[in-house]
Amino acid sequence: MSKERFFLVLFPVLLFGLFFWIKPGLLSNAQTPEEIDVTATVPATPTDIDFSFSGSETEGVTLNDGDQVDFTIQYRSNLGSSQLFEIVGGWDEGLIEGTGNYIDVFEYLVGSGTASSDGTVPVIDLQNRTITWNIDSLAPSAEYHSVSFSLTVRDDLTTENRISVTTKAEGSIFGNLLHQEEIGYYVQHTPTPSSTPTATATPTPTTVVSTATPTPTAGPTSTATPGPTNTPGPTNTPTPTPVLEALRFVSLRLTEVSANKVKILFKTNQETSFIFRYGLSSKQLTETVVGLARKKSHLLELDNLKPDTRYYFQIEAGNQKGDLIVSDIFTLQTSRKEGVVEINRGNSRLSFEGIPLTGEPFESVIVTKGLPLTVTLELEEPGEVLSIFARVVDSKVLGINNLKPSIPTGRVELIEMLPGVFSGTILAPKQECVCDLVLEIKDIYGGFFSTGFPYQVYFSPPLKILNAKNSKPIEDASLSISRYQENLKDYAFLGKAFPLITNADHRGEISLALPSGRYSINVEAIGYLPVTQKMELGISTFTYPTIYLEPDWSFKSRCLYYRQSAKDVLRFTFYHAQDFFASARARDAFLILIAGVNLLLFLTIFFAGKGKSDSGKMTRINFGFGVPKQVFNLLVDFWSVLSLFTGSFFWAYQGLVKVWLLLFLILITWIIKGIGL
């Protein structure tokens, strides 16, 4: 054997020996298949955790504005060891019945979330409407544990239709969903008394106190009574002490979330300053923002944030007396990148029945309460948009203080009808108020923001036309509206361009929606003297006027009034009769009604034919109803002829199949009448 071949054989042997010299006992530690111990984790099942979800209000009841519902989640573990357990409570948007639209119904009651038995505090996510408890170690227990939270019905609901809404609770171990329970409710908005809208600023806030009002004087005073009679002195009545409501958070909302900025609006029931703490972990809120100005409503803006990052925050607020309250821990997620949706003055429009209500020259719009308005928004790059909602809000809601009752408002989702053109119809509030129109926009990157239209909307009572003598409404009074044209320096009649409803209803009211400007109104009614009136909408007045007409008692005027009234009634009856008989279902129902009356006559004649008294009257027992025989016969003949005429008409119009039963009943009625009477 040559040296080369010898070294080629020896070299692998030396390497193999060196390997086992470095790793001693490698072969000795090898195990046979019988010695290998295989372990596996079995996923938890719903029977491993007992879980229940309940509310303080019975499921299916109807809630109203401001109602509070307290929810309780009970749980316990049946496993043999401690496990990571997650509880998530949530509340969905409500479905407006009859529309298919969804709306925010519940609002989390700040501070209502309780800690678990091991001290785990909840984290509230307002973007996804959830509250979460991440329990690091849930040990087996025979006793139930519980956590709770509360929701309140929003006081600015956007509809008077009934709303159905669902709340839910989930329990999971290591992401494995074990339990999911739901509780459903109905919500019905309660209308508030209307108030006259004004353009004045918001009044200075006052401290919220109980209904007991203290006497403004330092103490009771004595009043001397003239005359010689001595009267006992006044009884000292103690001055009631005002009872301050406990300091609490009223609401907390996210108004804008972008890639590097968020806006948070929170309110307290007393004037407070605050410390805002936030950070990247619920246990490490290292950054702080301090607000020293004491007020009830705080709008906080955080910038220089990181995109696509989850932040946690908590608010501590205190009043002048030194009372402190601390909120729950909240969380939010910044968007993945800065949105590209831009809203400017020129690409948002408001209209009513084709009349443009907004534009560059207009700063305000005056709308009759309860009218439907069309909102249109044009975007150059709509591909980044996930959803757009238009909402009417009380102009004082986002102000420093709001001491007036909240106004129920309208909200609608805008649909892309044309490329880049979003549109929808929003129902105006039924209360008088000064409002703003707000757009709520969500983009595909997880961001959202709200922006207002550059004008205010005044919701006014309708224009009324009344009798100057007795203040009663004038029905069908005719209204002609002309708008002043700056370029022509003259008034132009709006009826030439728009089909406005300009006739008063039975209440003497006309609903209008007009932009600010100068208008000339001419009102006429048969039997009344005409009136022309000027008004400056959005300039000197923000509501539609009430116009009084003097009655004209001349003989000619009275004759014209009654002639026109009779003409209008006949025209109305003929118009609606045409609509009625145009429906096949209506015609069939009409035939059934006539046939039923003939059947009743047939039975009356059949059973009462031989039940005549000596006086020639039908007996009441035999269904004659005490009507004289001659009159009864005349009524039967008249109805039979009318039915025969109607049946013949329908026979020619619809065929014999539709009317054979009616004609048969008419024939039988006449035969029985001839035999029985």
Strand content: 35-45%
Q: Report the sheet with the most strands, covering strand number, pairing sense and barrel closure.
A: 20 strands, mixed
Q: How far apart are the termini?
A: 146 Å
* Global structural class: alpha+beta
Question: Which blocks of ≥5 consecutive residues have pLDDT under 50?
Answer: 18-36, 194-233, 397-408, 610-624
From the spread of the alpha carbons, the general shape counts as: extended
Work out the helicity level.
10-25%
Number of strands: 36
The value of Rg in angstroms is 40 Å
Number of helices: 5
| Average predicted confidence as pLDDT | 77
Topology, please?
Elements: H1 3-22, E1 49-55, E2 62-63, E3 68-77, E4 83-91, E5 94-96, E6 102-103, E7 106-108, E8 123-125, E9 130-138, E10 145-153, E11 163-173, E12 176-187, E13 249-257, E14 262-279, E15 287-302, E16 310-318, E17 324-326, E18 329-333, E19 348-352, E20 355-356, E21 364-368, E22 372-378, E23 385-394, E24 411-413, E25 415-418, E26 421-427, E27 433-443, E28 448-460, E29 463-467, E30 478-485, E31 490-493, E32 509-510, E33 513-515, E34 517-524, E35 531-537, E36 546-549, H2 555-581, H3 584-608, H4 629-654, H5 656-676
Parallel strand pairs: 2-12, 8-18, 21-28, 29-36
Antiparallel strand pairs: 1-3, 3-10, 4-9, 4-11, 5-6, 5-11, 7-10, 8-9, 11-12, 13-14, 13-28, 14-15, 14-16, 16-17, 16-18, 19-20, 19-22, 21-33, 22-26, 23-24, 23-27, 25-26, 27-28, 29-32, 30-31, 30-34, 34-35
